[in-house]
């Protein structure tokens, strides 16, 4: 079976459990970041990202930069907007609010539309906001990891095309890329920013993103130079283009080991049709949601159509506390996360069921986790 | 012997060859970034950095952030300076110039003192510049990887204390930390920024830095909020303090695998006195420099006291070209780097001799590399 030592199963909304081959790639022997072998690996990795994001438009541009999911927000905030420009932020929790904070840090003028707790802003409200002011960008969190709320990116992008087609559509896909349907070209997206350690199944340490030709043009046509160095897309653009063309190039040193791990993870993902992968995540998510609902528990994302397939945020029963539940789960070999929503954070737990946990038939993570949760709640005196 | 597959020996000025145990740590099974086990590892890693940088002042603050050495420049540029403030940059090559570019990107008013090619600005000139204008920060590249020039940090820091004690002394230690003497407290430094993939011997992917209490105060006392999110030291400060206090904390997801690798590398380094490590690097460097000089070759860093012990930049003989030399070296299993100095880049090669290559007695990297270089130059028709 696995070459990894025995360890509790990590079922938080990222980092997730990793496949053996991906972890083995992390230990790749040292290579020059500008030598032919590594340049070929990096170039192939960037090309595979086009498939993962479902874009065949040659103007689309992938970026892989050492950092984290958060750095993707900075890329958007400092490159796509100039100080004082307007951004419409759709928030479904902690991470939507964080994206707004990041945009403000760089001087954007932010209007935030909040969904109710466990829900999302309505498309009609989005259309209304777009008709009242001209926004340079709209940002939306595909799956807000704090609530497990899924946004309807296709409908929002269509609303933008209808009401304010010049507005760039930016998706925080940190907890959705590689597990939720996300069609870059078909839906007309301008930026999707993500990270490796969620459904892609690669250890944390990279900001992974795709920008449209239109977004790249917006960066090139800026009146002011972006006030950043490490996060400057103008500086990174020729580097990414060179790597993909298999030409050595240098701005800041990438992590060859993380790139190898991402390469391995992407090859595994793309070996099967993406639809099959998305359906598998839906199937597992449906099973989780049915089981916890049957146990009498409530899901933070209220309506079924608002529920992410990557994770489930579950309210604990009255009188049962996170500091009791998480250690008891750990003693049964299962790691869930606590809540992080600013208003309801102490009341719910989060169960990530992405990547190998959802798609590897040799694993039994979900069933083990659901059994453990049942047992723990019973120990806490809860009767379904 | 090594558990790594056979591969050419990477002797560029970083990334360097890695120890087996460090690479094995890269494949650590997945952990939550806020779980007790990983928090303890990260906290211990931060505490070990204090020893590596030679600071016992509790006000000193280590940071480890996903990124690269370059991100350290951004930390300095956007946090220690406010737009329009003055920076004095001492440049000994490509990376000194890069630090100046980064500072300018964030709006600093930069005065650059350039050394001659292969040399460094004189301390008297530094004192003169400091006496003519009040600089918020002075930056100096300890070892400029483009030239192999070593700066005299101790004397420069002393000059600052004498002429302009309020000026913050910032060292780019990317190619010096863990191989050159660098005494944070004793020399009165305010910031040293580095990366893992040079003498520390950890795969690339992290910005590793130490800031003095005075530097942290400068960040806290700013009149304006730094225009950044991911590189905001105000946001990272409580996170680093919490990790070191073994308390879970979250701003952006660190890379548990890279932190484990750094932890392993630091344990190896700190198992012996640092002086012994520095002396070993000097001994190896002296051997390299003597051998190439005996071969009739010239070293880019002209004076012995200006020569780094981490690497050697070597002019090729007249009529011998980099595109001939590097592939021939590779065929003998040795990887050197080409030049990257904007004026002399095509005329020299760079040989990194840091980390395990210098200190692991089981390896024979340096002798193999010198033999290979002799053989290749002979094949190219060069006679010593």
UniProtKB/TrEMBL annotation, chains A, B:
InterPro entries xref list: Aminotrans_V_dom (IPR000192), PyrdxlP-dep_Trfase (IPR015424), PyrdxlP-dep_Trfase_major (IPR015421), PyrdxlP-dep_Trfase_small (IPR015422), SP_NH2Trfase/AEP_transaminase (IPR024169)
Residues recorded as bearing N6-(pyridoxal phosphate)lysine in the entry: 198
Keywords: Aminotransferase, Pyridoxal phosphate, Transferase
MF GO annotations: alanine-glyoxylate transaminase activity; L-serine-pyruvate transaminase activity
Gene3D superfamilies: Aspartate Aminotransferase, domain 1, Type I PLP-dependent aspartate aminotransferase-like (Major domain)
Keyword Hydrolase tagged: no
Pfam families for the chain: Aminotran_5
Cofactors named for this entry: pyridoxal 5'-phosphate
Record-listed substrate binding positions: 350
GO cellular component: peroxisome
Protein family according to the UniProt entry: Belongs to the class-V pyridoxal-phosphate-dependent aminotransferase family.
Record-given protein name: alanine--glyoxylate transaminase
Naturally occurring in which organism (per UniProt): Purpureocillium lavendulum
